[in-house]
Specification:
Blueprint lengths: L5 E2 L16 E2 L15 E5 L5 E4 L21 E3 L5 E5 L8 E4 L1 H4 L9 E10 L1 H6 L2 E9 L1 E6 L2 E6 L21 E4 L10 E10 L7 E11 L13 E5 L11 E8 L16 E9 L12 E5 L9 E3 L2 E4 L1 E6 L8 H11 L7 E8 L2 E10 L27 E5 L9 E3 L13 E6 L7 H19 L16 H13 L10 E5 L8 E3 L41 H5 L3 H15 L5 H14 L3 H8 L18 H24 L22 E4 L6 E17 L4 E16 L6 E9 L4 E8 L2
Parallel strand pairs: 1-22, 2-17, 6-7, 15-22
Antiparallel strand pairs: 3-14, 4-5, 4-8, 6-14, 8-13, 9-12, 9-14, 10-11, 10-13, 15-16, 16-17, 17-18, 18-21, 19-20, 21-23, 22-23, 24-26, 24-27, 25-26, 27-28, 29-30, 30-31, 30-32, 32-33
Helix pairs in contact: 5-7, 8-10
Length: about 750
Amino acid sequence: MVFRYLLAIAVPLSFLFPHAQANFTSPETAPVVPAISSDDEISLIPENATKHVFIPTEAISSNWHSLITFDNSHWRLCEGVPGGVGYEKSSGYDHMISLDVGDEMHADGNKPNSSCFIRIPFTLTVDELDRIRFLLLEMRFDDGFVAWLNGTRVAEKNAPDSVLWNSRATADNEAGEEYLFNISENIDVLVAGENLLAVQGLNWYSRSSDFLITAELNARESIFGNFKSANLPIIVIDNLGEPIPDEPKVNARMKIIDNGPQMQNHPASRISSFDGDIAVEIRGTFSSKFPQKPYGIETRDYFGENLNVPLLGMPKENDWVLISSYNDKSFLRNILALDLFRRMGHYSPRAVLCEVFVNWEYQGIYVFAEKIKRDKNRVDIAKLKPEDTSGKSLTGGYIFKVDYYKSSGSDSWISPYSPLGHPEQKVRFVYHYPKPDDMTLEQKSYIQSFVSAAETALYSDVFADSLYGYRNFIDVASFIDYFIISELSRNPDAYRKSRYFYKEKDSDGGLLHAGPVWDFDWAWKNIDTGIFSATDGSGWVYQYIGKNRKINSPAWYVRLMQDSTFTEQLANRYFELRASLLNWAHLNSSIDSVKSYVQIAKGRHFVKWPIVAENAAPEVEPPSKSYDEEIGRLKSWIGLRLNWLDMQFAAMRPDPSTGITSKQPINSSRFTTRLFPNPASNFVYVESNKTLARLDFYNVLGRHVHKAQFSNSYSQKIALDHLSAGIYFIKMTAESGEVSRHKITILN
């Protein structure tokens, strides 16, 4: 068996081999520019190559960018490392500049010019010329340039159509990232012997604080170097060599080569399972700082609109992610957790291991995965529309999370409850679906009120009561399984970052669910912080609060673990899973399947990112010296963790042979009601699992003061502005005649 839905594995984890699917090609498909590796690269012009540089004060012969024999004896020389031409009046480019041209180009100088002429001669042998099949120009520029190869204009950016001796850049650009230009169609202008790359650097204006030009020219014998084939799916992303920003998304092309299980995939293949338009950006917060970048992807149509397509055996959608493996040298941490949670019976993002090329550069092994969003094949809850502002339609279709939030707070709300024992900390919940800008005030008010009511019930003196406690608000089974996978992996981020929740409509149960799970880069290992540094497998993650920080986790599990019914149910579910999904033989087989699946690909990955013996994160032990050692450590770590958890959960069961399991409903046939917020001001929500007939309010003297009648309704928003401040008792009556009672405080 195989993990196919998580990355591309091959054993008992549904995340290995993608399912068969129809090929897809978007309209007017353009050929994807091939990627390259570094093994057979021919360096024609290194970045520190000698350059002849001239800042003109008047027009000169255009032969300067075409004739090898052009007289540049009076031009300045740029020699040695680092090799850049430019100037820096502030800070940023100093370490890249070998020749300073600030006196001639900045406004402080005499007759400043915004154009800089650069000539870089290079020599090719007959043998080298015969080998070249792929030509790549790598440029850094602030702010624009035009490049000629032996007089042929081959590349440009931020340049006017007609370039004069004093032309300026048409826009500004920071030179922090290299731009890659595939100029292979100009190979025929190269000759054996002397050749010339000429560059006209363009500054945006003479008072600009900086200017920079660097250039490299490399060639290859084949478009993909020695990368011939792979058993993992291959993804090629091409956005014409431009850097991919963290936002906004930029247009690009994506090609996926996936011939199915047990088949080889060839990067230069003309047959693909997808070949179409996308928008792409760098994603992630901490992970985006690693050299191997994670990406967010939208599949789009010819007109730039979202296009739902099935990819790598996953149901059709338009939002996807590429998770980098820089911080996970096992290639297992995310896919193992995602697969286990799915097998526990919950939605979990499908994911597939793959190898990725971005702009002709091999980028290593990634996890291609679904993005968490509302969809019938993802988080299957009702679609919440702007017009859903009352009644049953208002009660569900929400996804929110504990995660990073905007400094303005516009995308989140603050819980009225701090983590237990830490009143100085604030907990924020971030809107995920619908997006905060798409939500109405009624929808925001509803979900805030519901979560606050759930927290009030959880932190109350009767929190464990089956009638008035937290079970009226949360789906206990999902909270238990979320706890198990989070604690099994000892995930430092499980409760404080990328922590998702979703709420169904009342007609679908109306409960708050924990999950889907996400982000296990730092899990399944010993991290040098807090309880995560323990090397004996010990420590409860849910108890770790840590120092006051921007993202704080609600202490819901701290409270839940004070309920003996919950802990017994939790323990029974854990041992149910230990006998099946969390059986060591199953886990070991799953790990070995991934190890076997990436056996060849890992070699390429660790050549690209030589981090096997390096510490990519603040881990406790010295880094593994090989991939086999990394896998061995992971297995040992899981074994220790399971042993410790076995002892902890065994102590929670007074009688292991009895007790309910997490899948057993808790008195689901009884009349269940909810009322929130409480205290309330202008309104209160009432919800029930059975149709309501009427609602009666009584004051503290027992006098009937208000009545509300309903017809075939499970939920209502009741106005309170006609009632004075004080304490009231509410009698809820179902159409079946069953009665539920609540006490509410109404504020001014």
